[in-house]
Amino acid sequence: MMFLCDQPLYSNRLAAVQKGISAAIALAGPKGAAVSLLAVSKRHTAEAIKALHALGVNDFGESFAREGADKRQQLADCGLVWHFIGPLQSNKTGLVARHFDWIQSLDRSAIARRLNRQRPADMAPLDALIQVNIDSEPQKAGVSPQAIWPLAELVADLPALRLRGLMAIPRVGKPDAAQRQSFHAMRILFEKLQSRHDGIDTLSMGMSDDMDNAIIEGSTMVRIGTSLFGPRQA
Ligand SMILES: *Cc1c(COP(=O)(O)O)cnc(C)c1O
Fold it and tell me: Which of 180, 233, 178 is nearest to 211 (CA)?
């Protein structure tokens, strides 16, 4: 019943996000080719995910390995694509290797090696983005820009991983121009990675509050939680 009552709400929110994406693409010029939408479903229910899936959304992002693995098992029949986007400790790599299609938060070689070892042989390679700490925040996950290159070399050589690009979460609350500078710096790093490796097609940046600036500066994938699902449970 909830599902049916909520459907128009999700439909309106999705339409607003899609409209925002199109408007930002129009402002981006030639860089704004295509932007895919990742629905960030952490701390939202399987029912909410189903409601968005019924509207055509296929990619979902989770920040906690156990929570994401449980939802994937609950929704196994839906054929969804699951992205792990949170910090990953070594004791949880098995869950990500077995239950996710992408990892967007790769920032350590030891984690990359474990995922490669634990990825089941009958699954496609795990698509991987290297997370970059673009504003050098001490408490934030991600590698420094100079550390991208050795990690990228390693990931490119691991058969059960497939390097697809970069992800970043700039510092929150920056003035507009400074925020755009961070996104612009990511776009430059992304193009450099493309010049060094094959198959690099994803620059994941932009969330509910900074999506427009990210797209204008050349994001290819936005990760949207609140604008699609509403506020998260504590
Ligand atoms: C939670 C989260 C998001 C979505 O944030 P919203 O502000 O709710 O859109 C995007 N990316 C990452 C890495 C997150 O952890």
Answer: 180
